[in-house]
Amino acid sequence: MKTITDLELENKKVLIRCDFNVPIKNGKIIDDTRIKESLKTINYCIEKNAKIILLSHLGRVKTESDKKDKTLKPIAKKLEKLLNKEIKFIPETRGKKLEDAVDSLKNGELLLIENTRFEDINGKKESSNDKELGKYWASLGDIFINDAFGTIHRKHASNVGIASNKDSAVGFLVEKELNVLSELKCPTKPFIIILGGSKVSDKIGVIKNLVKKADRILIGGGMAFTFLQSEGYNIGSSILDQDSLDFCRDILNKYPEKILLPVDVNVTTEFSNSTKNEVKDITEIADNEMGLDIGPNTITLYENYLKDAKTVLWNGPLGVYELNKYKKSTDEILKFLVDNNIKTILGGGDIVAAASNAKLNDKVYHASTGGGATLEYLEGKKLPGVEVIK
Fold this sequence. Notes:
Layout: E1 13-17, E2 24-25, E3 28-29, H1 33-37, H2 39-47, E4 51-55, H3 73-83, E5 87-90, H4 96-103, E6 110-113, H5 131-139, E7 143-146, H6 157-163, E8 168-170, H7 172-182, E9 191-195, H8 204-210, E10 216-219, H9 223-230, H10 245-254, E11 259-260, E12 264-268, E13 277-281, E14 290-294, H11 296-306, E15 311-315, H12 328-339, E16 343-346, H13 350-357, E17 366-367, H14 371-378, H15 384-387
Parallel strand pairs: 1-4, 1-7, 4-6, 5-6, 7-8, 9-10, 9-15, 10-11, 15-16, 16-17
Antiparallel strand pairs: 2-3, 12-13, 12-14
Helix pairs in contact: 5-6, 9-10, 11-12
């Protein structure tokens, strides 16, 4: 597969698909991790005297009113600060204004096109990989670099569409992500997987694909209660993935020594930070109680297995980390892994956000920028954005 260093960039118009899909509140960027991760590829193109055209999506855009909160203008301002260079922001996804701005670019200059998903309002042209749109965006440049790992599992006009019409390669971020995840094909053992999040169904493919390689799979988050109910425990009003009960029952029967479930949980009666909570054994959950985090005995149990691990893959937080009362287990085990220098790969999404909030994301071996992309890679699926460049 071609990488950015395989292409001649001098004096070329280089289209870079970045992943600037970051949380923004009231026009202010809450977490700029993904923007910073794109800088290596952008700076390389600047050093090579390329004319740089940046594309990215931001959230989902279904109606005209969505445009107000989904513009990439705040991203342009942030990039100017991080790069210490002017960013020409074009608040359009196609047309003469955009074409003229591209034609006027000088070597080393940067232009950011408006949110690619603005094209989804009339016919989902971006998300459905509209051929005409992909061809149009490709016509704006000479070379295409895909550096958006977070969307590499999607077949969109701004990645697969452009790459189908232009000499293409992956950027440094995508190359790094793929190299790290490929290490999990033959991980250094003991290899332990931590799985959290709300739904079992989101993780079935990963469990099926990696259970034979893993020495242990530690289960937490909302998905733990579906496993517990499949074992006959009363889970009260805890979240339940009804359609996955049979899978949980079958996988526990097949691998009883590999899959570990919580032995205690932090319960409450309302999904709230203010409602009274307490730690209970999994045999004591009342009908009106919901579990929102694993308990201290489970933390100790899991850490006893983790202390000897050589490789840890973690996807999904172990509790409702956005509520302060229920982020203890996620923070404690993250800190335990960092303090003990255990090679830890965070599989994107909410667990990376949790690590960022705890200021630990830059202390682990790798924090992936792609949740869905990481999961699909770990399931053994082919990634369209990679395949088209291959």
